[in-house]
Each structure stands twice: as C-alpha cells, then as structure tokens.
Amino acid sequence: MRIELEVDVLTNNNRAAQFNRRLFEETKTLVINVMSSPGAGKTTLLEKTIEALSSEFRIGVIEGDLATEKDAERIRALGAQAIQINTHGGCHLDARMIAAVLPKFELDEIDLLFIENVGNLVCPSSYDLGQQHKVAVLSVPEGNDKIVKYPTMFMRTELVLVNKIDLLPYLDFDIVQAKEDLIGINPQSLLLPVSAKTGEGMDQWLRWIREGIAQWQKQ
Amino acid sequence: MHEMALMGEIVQLLEQDAINRKIDAITRVEVKVGTLSNVLPEALEMAFDAYKLQPTNRLTETAQLIIHIEQAKAVCVICGQEYEPASRIAQCPSCQFLGGRMIAGETFQLLAYEGS
C-alpha cells in the first residue's frame, strides 16, 4: 500500500511551537531565543542583562546545553528562575523540549523569558520554538565572515549582537563589513555592537528589550 | 549529525501514521530535499540505514529511501528574473542584486511511504 503524506518533516516541532506561542500570548510573556556558536558569550550577556533589568521585569531563563547544569546555576545565582535542558548530544533545542519544561515556570508571573539555545550556528536556526524574537550573538574573536558563512542563521534573526567589542583593538573583526554583509542577506536585521564584560553598548540592547516588552504587553 | 535528528522526525511521523493504518512493515520512504534546506542527502541515507536496524520502529531492514532533490530557485526583487542561486545569498545574474526571494530549494518534506 502506498500512502501519500506530503508533510513538512518538522511538522511535530511546528505544532509544539504553535502551542508554546499561544501560551506565551495568553500569559503575556515575551520570549527571546538567543543563538550563537559556543563561547560567544551568551550566558555572560544574559547575566549582565538580568542584573540590569531585574528591578523592572520578572525574568526566567531556559538553558540549553549538551550536558551539565553550569549555566542554569550561573543564572540562579542572580535570583532569576532558570531551568536547564540537557540535550545529551543533540545539537539544538526543539519546541517539544521547551513545552516539556514550561509547566515548571509560573508564566503569569514572568514578563521576559530567555531561551539560551545550544551553542551552534547551524541546527538551532531550523527549529521554531514559539518565541517572539530570535537574536544571534556573534563575538569578535569568531571573525565577521561568520555572517556570510552561516546565512541560514543570520537570515532568520532580527537582531545580531556583536559581543566582546572590548577585543576589537587586538583582532581583525571588521564591523563595517559585518553590517554590509548582514544588509545583503537580511536587510531588516539590526546589528548592535556590545561588550557584556565592560558594559559598552549594553544600553541599546536593554532599550531594545524594554521596547519589545512594552509593545508585547500593549497588544 | 543534524540528519540523525531529522531522520528521527521522519520515523516519528511514519510511526504515527502507520499505527492508524495498521501498517506493520514499511518498505519504502520518499522525501523531497531542497538544495538549500541544510540537509545532506548522503548523511540522511546514513541516518536512514541506522534507523532501519533499530527494532523499535516499523522500517524493514531492506527498506529503501528515495530522495527527490528540489533545485533552488530565486526571483530577483528588482528586475524580476528567475534564476538558480548558487547559495542562500541569492545574487541576480542579470542585475547583480543581492537578496533575491527564494521560491524553491528550502523544502524538506516527507512525501510518501509504502508498506503492508
């Protein structure tokens, strides 16, 4: 017997993403999916962001890693609620993994939920998690050519944070070229240079989040 | 090995459908893979072979995977020309404009299967 299906291979993931999205809408939780290669500074960026915003918003974090609770522990140390997902070798988070841990949060009491994806510039870009915003972090030591080398990631994000700009004097990262490359593949995307370590540029990122939350809660 | 996870999605969809139709042995699976879908056909075949040997699904040990390739196609948003882009960053061959709208090549679908 031959059975015609003609369905997207990610059908089950996309259904779970829709479920998550509805829940985030009902509870007015703004969800940001943060993606980058390993070591770009996602966790440090989130730590500094939580420190700066915790008096204004109630913040939660879902941490995705292959193994260990290390990142969730760093976030909990700041008083924010953090749930760790270990993918046990899996290269990305998918919407079902997110749906499975959402009951551990009181979403009604969270304004802002970060999902820190597994460090990887390829696979996480294919999986919708139900988030409202996708943000990519690209760090100065990686080089500005990553934008054109991993276009599937940078074509689908709304904001690229170029992190570790305190290292610009020592390395050959070309921010002007990075901006041009980004405009070429994704004209709508913003690019903000930041240093989570020194705090430079962080005010613009924090403003972007504040505006996002204000707009989301108005809807 | 992204393809291993993707094959896991395919096997799950097959299982869901086959249970309902009371199909116990799947002998042939057809997928459509766009050239810009980030899926490597060779890696997908390897993943299929690995899943075939697992007793936890309905794929038979001799099941075949048929991969239909979908050629990438883009339309230039400036001059309207249709062309086959070499990469995700589509550049129009006549006016050189970057960022053409992709109309084919990103598909990754489970098309059909055969079994009894």
Automatic annotation (TrEMBL), chain A:
<dbReference type="InterPro" id="IPR003495">
    <property type="entry name" value="CobW/HypB/UreG_nucleotide-bd"/>
</dbReference>
<dbReference type="Pfam" id="PF02492">
    <property type="entry name" value="cobW"/>
</dbReference>
<dbReference type="GO" id="GO:0003924">
    <property type="term" value="F:GTPase activity"/>
</dbReference>
<comment type="similarity">
    <text>Belongs to the SIMIBI class G3E GTPase family. HypB/HupM subfamily.</text>
</comment>
<keyword id="KW-0533">Nickel</keyword>
<keyword id="KW-0378">Hydrolase</keyword>
<protein>
    <submittedName>
        <fullName>Hydrogenase nickel incorporation protein HypB</fullName>
    </submittedName>
</protein>
<keyword id="KW-0342">GTP-binding</keyword>
<feature type="domain" description="CobW/HypB/UreG nucleotide-binding">
    <location>
        <begin position="31"/>
        <end position="188"/>
    </location>
</feature>
<dbReference type="InterPro" id="IPR027417">
    <property type="entry name" value="P-loop_NTPase"/>
</dbReference>
<dbReference type="GO" id="GO:0005525">
    <property type="term" value="F:GTP binding"/>
</dbReference>
<dbReference type="GO" id="GO:0051604">
    <property type="term" value="P:protein maturation"/>
</dbReference>
<dbReference type="GO" id="GO:0008270">
    <property type="term" value="F:zinc ion binding"/>
</dbReference>
<keyword id="KW-0479">Metal-binding</keyword>
<keyword id="KW-0547">Nucleotide-binding</keyword>
<keyword id="KW-0862">Zinc</keyword>
<dbReference type="GO" id="GO:0016151">
    <property type="term" value="F:nickel cation binding"/>
</dbReference>
<dbReference type="InterPro" id="IPR004392">
    <property type="entry name" value="Hyd_mat_HypB"/>
</dbReference>
